[in-house]
Amino acid sequence: MSGRRRSFTPEYRVEAAHRVIDGNRRVAEVAVELNVHENQLHKWVADERRRMAAAAGGRVRDPVGDKQLSVDERAELVRLRAKVAEQAKDIAFLEKASAYFAGKHLK
To answer: DSSP for 35-90?
Structure first.
């Protein structure tokens, strides 16, 4: 090992935490995927959940109206956010792949 500590940007920490929160995935699974220690990811997830609760005033509210979301609505919201996040990753990958192959054919 190099002995040098890795540092992660706040954006990276939030994104990693949301892979667990929105994706309904286990911390251990995401930690292996991201090559970070499981305890570190647990801390990031806890920090993000606290931040989200504080931003929502401790309650989850419907972004359109002023009513609280039911458990089923919250589950649907989490599922849809995970789907959007997954599709965004797919789009980013496809954009990189198309740029790579477009550059390869130009030479």
So the answer is: T--HHHHHHHHHHHHHHHHHHTTTS-B-SSSSSBPPHHHHHHHHHHHHHHHHHHHH
